[in-house]
Amino acid sequence: MKNSTQKGLGDPGINQTFRAAYTQKQTGKSNNRKNQTKQEKLARRGGGRGTILVGDSGVGKTSLLVQFDQGKFIPGSFSATVGIGFTTMHVFVFQIWDTAGQERFRSVTHAYYRDAHALLLLYDITSKSSFDNIRAWLTEIHEYAQSDVVIMLLGNKADMNSDRTIRREEGERLAREYSVPFMETSAKTGVNVELAFTAVAKELKSRAIQHPSEPKFKIHEYIEAQKEKSSCCESFSNLLN
Ligand SMILES: Nc1nc2c(ncn2[C@@H]2O[C@H](COP(=O)(O)OP(=O)(O)OP(=O)(O)O)[C@@H](O)[C@H]2O)c(=O)[nH]1
């Protein structure tokens, strides 16, 4: 995925074609049934349990997805997403769509809101405008997405602390106002990337297979517990170093 490569397609109607091509690119295998990996089969069965990444252009949606999917950061190497990109994940059976942040592709993004079960809404902690636009994104989400869609707010580029213009507390306050879970992430260092996707996957899974007698999965509590765990492990490993 170098500069000259478009990250997605502008027409949701041809997403199926792109999906096959993208999967092939990622795995080096053909996407026919015979050659499908276990994850690809699971993803197929997961059907419409789609998660989309939204937010202004340049906040790091594709980088976050690549970090999650491939465990690496490719600095500055993406052209702006055109329409929708696609990958599959294996924490739970679901699909992730990467959307374009640019205004001119919004109508494409709207078409995907309807089918989305979860939305990861990103801003860039070094960009005030991307944070200010979160309210507009939420208005749009409430207009086009299903009313029970899972939303998570992510302040990305947490590694760029010296260029920070949005304090963590501001992100937390906004998230509280809209009753959505929040965390800061870095597609560069990988901080909280796995946690963000895992928390959403667990929430979707619990909704899909929830038995009335089982205790409800609490996404806020899960995130706080996992954050505590990782900060305790970080300080422990700091002690060892
Ligand atoms: N330091 C740092 N840079 C990041 C991070 N995430 C993304 N970037 C950089 O930010 C720029 C934009 O990243 P993209 O992933 O293309 O952003 P996008 O939101 O997908 O952009 P659109 O496709 O235009 O909507 C690139 O130069 C990335 O290398 C991060 O966590 N930390």
UniProtKB/TrEMBL annotation:
<dbReference type="GO" id="GO:0003925">
    <property type="term" value="F:G protein activity"/>
</dbReference>
<keyword id="KW-0449">Lipoprotein</keyword>
<keyword id="KW-0342">GTP-binding</keyword>
<protein>
    <recommendedName>
        <fullName>small monomeric GTPase</fullName>
        <ecNumber>3.6.5.2</ecNumber>
    </recommendedName>
</protein>
<dbReference type="GO" id="GO:0015031">
    <property type="term" value="P:protein transport"/>
</dbReference>
<keyword id="KW-0547">Nucleotide-binding</keyword>
<dbReference type="InterPro" id="IPR005225">
    <property type="entry name" value="Small_GTP-bd"/>
</dbReference>
<dbReference type="InterPro" id="IPR001806">
    <property type="entry name" value="Small_GTPase"/>
</dbReference>
<keyword id="KW-0460">Magnesium</keyword>
<keyword id="KW-0378">Hydrolase</keyword>
<keyword id="KW-0813">Transport</keyword>
<keyword id="KW-0636">Prenylation</keyword>
<feature type="region of interest" description="Disordered">
    <location>
        <begin position="23"/>
        <end position="49"/>
    </location>
</feature>
<dbReference type="GO" id="GO:0005525">
    <property type="term" value="F:GTP binding"/>
</dbReference>
<keyword id="KW-0653">Protein transport</keyword>
<dbReference type="InterPro" id="IPR027417">
    <property type="entry name" value="P-loop_NTPase"/>
</dbReference>
<dbReference type="GO" id="GO:0046872">
    <property type="term" value="F:metal ion binding"/>
</dbReference>
<keyword id="KW-0479">Metal-binding</keyword>
<comment type="similarity">
    <text>Belongs to the small GTPase superfamily. Rab family.</text>
</comment>
<dbReference type="Pfam" id="PF00071">
    <property type="entry name" value="Ras"/>
</dbReference>
